[in-house]
């Protein structure tokens, strides 16, 4: 692998069997698999000055490993995804736990046995917990919608408390919506965990943190003799999208193209911009060993920010006397502002607009959109990896 800033003057697209746009999960997975399994010579074009996409992490001036674009918590049920990523990293044990700051009291989320006792008092909380166990069983997740279907005043009391104190105000900050604008289907998915397990992903068989960090994982994934990486390259500057062909650097390109960026921006937003939410992240270095008891604390009833992450609680690093926290402030994404589009706003009219953009590349047999931005959906890291593995299977099969 070679990593170069910018394209060399003699860059020749025809020297490559595949061009990948984006060096995050989707792009890096496809690049590795096609180089390794099909013998493709691959050029990876990355708009930023680094690889690893939003998973990029680095050591700050105090030697603390920081996730530049927000906390990335690895967890998956997918054995194939786990086995593939495990080729490029060892895993440090990390079981993600989240607390909600509810009127100054820290309670586990998803709401569980301990949360009930903290919210309702020891005796009443135990009564409500026993009612949940009698109704649904133990060590299961139950949504607010399921609680309300039972028409039981005790279950409704739990559902109402969780809705008001865990979901409502947090969601209003996260998505910029008023209560009447929040889709009831989203409300209904908010879970209560009927048990004592306080992990955020209690049933995921594979979870942890890359032992050396995410960036080294990507460095190893892209470390192949047939992969060249070019950073500081905006594909829009060298791509021309026609009805049936793609030109790269002015030449019709006959190889495969894996595109992981936003489709609307590829077409200069000419049908309108796809809406996203973005985040302002405020990092603070504090002169203390530890700021909070877990990696993430959600502020569900107070503050302008949505949550605080403390990175040492996730990585297990020991850096005496210093810690780094990050506060997240959510707001609407503005294309062309240099902001990062994080969360697609998956309302029907937005999805319809995306489909109109997608139609414009449907007749390009060698153009493959994949990933959170290119597919306009919310993906966890494992789901992006799975989507890229499936796409690379298809491309490999076509060239077998």
TrEMBL record:
This is UDP-galactopyranose mutase. Keywords: FAD, Flavoprotein, Isomerase. Its cofactor is FAD. It comes from Collinsella acetigenes. It holds the Pfam family NAD_binding_8. It comes from the Bacteria. GO terms for molecular function: flavin adenine dinucleotide binding; UDP-galactopyranose mutase activity. InterPro entries: UDP-GALP_mutase, UDP-GalPyranose_mutase_C. Belongs to the UDP-galactopyranose/dTDP-fucopyranose mutase family. Its EC number is 5.4.99.9. The keyword Isomerase applies.
């Amino acid at each position: 692998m070679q990593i170069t800033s910018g394209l060399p003057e003699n860059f020749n697209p025809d020297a490559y069997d595949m061009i990948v746009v984006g060096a995050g999960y989707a792009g890096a997975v496809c690049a590795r698999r096609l180089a390794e399994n099909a013998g493709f010579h691959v050029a990876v074009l990355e708009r930023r000055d680094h690889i690893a996409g939003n998973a990029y992490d680095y050591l700050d001036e105090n030697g603390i490993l920081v996730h530049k674009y927000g906390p990335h918590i690895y967890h998956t049920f997918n054995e194939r995804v786990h086995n593939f990523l495990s080729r490029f990293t060892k895993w440090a044990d990390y079981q993600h736990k989240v607390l909600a700051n509810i009127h100054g009291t820290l309670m586990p989320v998803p709401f569980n046995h301990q949360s009930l006792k903290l919210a309702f008092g020891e005796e009443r909380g135990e009564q409500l917990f026993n009612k949940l166990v009698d109704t649904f069983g133990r060590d299961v997740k139950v949504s607010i919608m399921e609680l309300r279907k039972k028409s039981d005043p005790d279950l409704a009391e739990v559902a109402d408390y969780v809705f008001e104190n865990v979901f409502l105000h947090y969601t209003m900050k996260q998505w910029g919506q008023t209560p009447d604008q929040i889709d009831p289907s989203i409300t209904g998915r908010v879970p209560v965990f009927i048990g004592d397990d306080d992990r955020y992903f209690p049933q995921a068989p594979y979870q942890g943190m890359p032992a050396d960090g995410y960036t080294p994982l990507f460095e190893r994934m892209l470390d192949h003799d047939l992969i060249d990486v070019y950073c500081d390259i905006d594909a829009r500057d060298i791509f021309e999208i026609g009805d049936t062909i793609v030109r790269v650097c002015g030449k019709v390109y006959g190889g495969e193209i894996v595109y992981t960026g936003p489709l609307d921006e590829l077409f200069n937003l000419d049908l309108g911009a796809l809406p996203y939410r973005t985040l302002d992240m405020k990092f603070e270095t504090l002169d203390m060993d530890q700021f909070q008891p877990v990696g993430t604390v959600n502020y569900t009833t107070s503050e302008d920010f949505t949550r605080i992450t403390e990175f040492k609680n996730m990585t297990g690093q020991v850096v005496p006397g210093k810690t780094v926290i990050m506060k997240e402030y959510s707001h609407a994404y503005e294309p062309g502002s240099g902001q990062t589009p994080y969360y697609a706003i998956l309302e029907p009219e937005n999805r319809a607009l995306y489909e109109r953009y997608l139609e414009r590349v449907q007749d390009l047999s060698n153009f493959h959109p994949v990933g959170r931005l290119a597919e306009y959906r919310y993906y966890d890291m494992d789901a992006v990896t799975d989507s890229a593995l499936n796409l690379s299977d298809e491309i490999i099969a076509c060239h077998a």
